[in-house]
Design goal:
InterPro entries: Alkaline_phosphatase_core_sf, GAG_Ulvan_Degrading_Sulfatases, Sulfatase_N. This protein is α/β, with parallel strands linked by helices. It has a single domain, classed as Alkaline Phosphatase, subunit A, CATH 3.40.720. Helices cover about 35% and strands about 10% of the residues. A three-stranded parallel beta sheet has the order 1-3-2, with helices on both faces. It has a two-stranded antiparallel sheet with strand order 4-5. Helix 5 crosses helix 6.
Length: about 230
Amino acid sequence: MKRLLLAGLVLFAACHAFAAAERWNILFIFADDWGRYASCYKGLDGRPTLNDVVQTPNIDRVARDGVIFKNAFVNAPSCTPCRSSLLSGRYFFNCNRGAILQGAIWDSSIPSFPLMLHDAGYQIGKSYKVWSPGKPVDAPIGGQQYAYEKSGRLPNRFSMNVTKMVAGGMTVEAAREKILDQVRGNFKAFLADQKPDHPWLYFFGPTTRIARGKKVRGRNCGASSPIR
């Protein structure tokens, strides 16, 4: 009986501690076609790579204060299936029509972690791409009802937008600041809507994708074709 009582007290204390634990805010950054290129990986590959010349001081700071994944693998080497897996926690082939790229349809009966966090009291928001190509666009985070993009959408297809601005006479530095101003503005708008004592999830998904019908290197590219 004493052992049962002790076990009960330990379980009660653990549950109380879990309930009282601080729930962290979550900033989720997922860029199109980024790959494993950041200067925090310099020297970890055992051979010369782009990480030797790429400079990413802000990402490096996150790495210093957190964890660098040295042996991580994508669940599916394709955009929408990969995101379906990421957002649902399932293997991509268990995501029904979310397991395909072109013509994907999100199955609303599949739980997604952003909406689960919302149900648990988190305030959620997103800018740009979370889940696509597919319909409804960004369905695993509630579509566009939690979108914060009023400050601008230049970070969406940013490589194409920067190229256009530079071709129009703007310096690379000025184009960069214009895009970053929109990033800051959208995030500040999200933070301004937050209620006190409520944790939040913000999903930032800039893309490098080109507009439908544009040509790159003489070939016609659809909306899902990246600039290489």
